[in-house]
Amino acid sequence: MMYKTVVIGYTPRATSMAKKVENMANQMLQEGYELITMSTTGSGKAILVFKKVILGMDD
Q: What confidence score (pLDDT) does residue 57 get?
């Protein structure tokens, strides 16, 4: 299984952060990665963890 971590830079507003997370999740899905978890930091950043989707394999 392959994982990839992405950091979204300083975004102090929740609506802006949600849009950035959504856009990144959609972009990564096109590259074959599925968002599995995320965390926000006290400094207004977000850490997203993606897992490579392997077709034909069951969880």
A: 61
Q: Which pTM was predicted?
A: 0.87
Q: Name the 3-class secondary structure at 17.
A: helix
Determine the 3-state secondary structure of 18 from DSSP: helix
Tally of structural domains, the chain: 1
- Could you read off the pLDDT of 31-58 as tens digits, one per residue? 999 999 999 999 999 999 999 988 776 5
Residue 25 CB contacts under 8 Å (≥ 6 apart), including other chains: 35, 48
Domain-embedded: residue 59: no
Integer-rounded Cα Rg, in Å, for the chain is: 12
For residue 26, being part of any structural domain is answered with yes
Task: Fill in the amino acid letter for 49.
Answer: V
